[in-house]
Amino acid sequence: MATAASTSSADSDTECSVCHELFKNPKLLPCAHVLCRHCLLSWLASNPEALCPLCRGAIADPKEKSKTKGWEEVVDALPDDVAMTALVESTRVLSQDHVCGGCKTAAVSICLNCNDMMCKSCSDLHTNFSATRHHKVEDLSSMTAEELAASQPDHCSVHTCKPCELFCPTHGAAICHLCASAKHRACPDLTELAEAADKSREELSQMVTSLLTEEQQLEEAVAELERHLEATEKVVQEAVAEIDRTCDKLENSVKECRRRLKKMTLDAKAKVKDTVLAVKVTLLDHRGRLTSHRRVADRTTRGTNNRGMCDVTRALRDRVKDILVTCGQRRADLKSVSMVTLTIDAAVVARIEKELSALGQVKVKPVSIGTRQQQDWRFHTNHGKNIVLSNDGLTAERVKDYYNGIVVADQPMVPDVLYEVQLDNVDKQFIVHLPCGVVLTDPDHLRLPGTAYYGWGSEAVVISHAVFNRGHKENNNLNKATHGLPEGTRVGVMVTTKAELHLWVNGSDRGVIATTVPTPCFAFFDLRDTYNKASVLPPRHVD
């Protein structure tokens, strides 16, 4: 009996998802899924929208049916999956009882030329007969369906007893020498089939590499979207909690305001979530197409003969080019993803009902997802009066005095993403601390002090000569890490998903500045005293 190991690797690939039997006349759909010809015809007859039953991708334009007598011409125009056909036949052969065809005893080997199973005695005779001594006989116990399919001889489709030894690029066909003399005499550039197969194999390998690379990038993009959804959920939860804390102080007079702000926040969350999920669905759909085509190309490379290799290469070439272009376009959709921010104006609370309509603001701001290598944050245009921005907001320079040099990020921090600057110009005349940290107010509405060296009240978490956590001075030895920084130093801050604010210097995590840091928050750096100039570095996700 055939062993499970001999066919298990191909079982799932060789069964039609409609009839759940081995493929018969398998057809390769535009989405790279495979169906039996008769199953495809039956499916189209009962589903005139002509969508793939597995991924709902378009099989054909339904209008095509009106141009023919039925779906037959549409289906027959689809390429045959010759690699699958060979794999199915090999699976069928290996699934049979392992019985010698000559003496009906247990078979131990198989002839790759004849597909006949043989016992040891018959195998020895087979390799000694003059007619079959050049046949390749392999151990049956270690033979896989893919190996058997790939080892099949290339027979001419016209002269079936003749081997295919040539390839005609003009007709895209593998031919024998008789065909070359009779029907392809005028065709230029006839090449050896083995040479053409080598080129096809190389092209298919490149396809697999390109598709796999795109597939991995899409998987990473989907993972980024998942992390973004988690961050959005956390931001919204904290925003709702902040709304509750503020409204509780104002008792009944702010109940209506609380309801309004919650609704704005949750609506913004829903908008972000809908956008993210829509982009995610698109990416998963294209990842499916990438995976399907990669599998076809990979399977063909490993499990078909030379002629099949050429046929599948021709069938996939333009598709793969189109898919790779489309995937690039789909990744551009990531730029449409946004993040929810909530702003609570503390000054409004003191004025109570008079200013309730301006108590909070919920915004959906665009953020860059899946582009970690891009400089996708800049210095906000609200900066210290002695600061001049250049390089499209990526460089800040204090042009006079020693104060009024605060710069703030133009977008809220994403959890577990490091926001860094590089100190480009440091005056060695003084050795001082570089104040940095996060502000809790949107830079659009932020009032900047001359320096953050002595803290920044309740609006910020600052590390300079000490740590000032929303106005409270705390003991923390990390202040030593910001003292006397030389030119070229990289300084950054990062808020984790646990709401911990970390200080980073030259790519090293120096520790936790503060805990329970509210969000949204914005990174800031105070270019005071000796620190004259700094440049934005690309944000970096830290696992």
UniProtKB/TrEMBL annotation:
Protein keywords: Coiled coil, Metal-binding, Zinc, Zinc-finger
Coiled coil feature spans: 201-267
Matches recorded under Gene3D superfamilies: 2.60.120.920, Classic Zinc Finger, Zinc/RING finger domain, C3HC4 (zinc finger)
Domain B box-type: 95-140, 151-185
Highest taxon, organism lineage: Eukaryota
Occurrences of domain NHR (ranges): 376-539
InterPro entries: B30.2/SPRY_sf (IPR043136), NHR_dom (IPR006573), TRIM45/56/19-like (IPR047153), Znf-RING_euk (IPR027370), Znf_B-box (IPR000315), Znf_RING (IPR001841), Znf_RING/FYVE/PHD (IPR013083), Znf_RING_CS (IPR017907)
Protein name: Uncharacterized protein
Organism per entry: Littorina saxatilis
Lineage, highest ranks first: Eukaryota, Metazoa, Spiralia, Lophotrochozoa, Mollusca
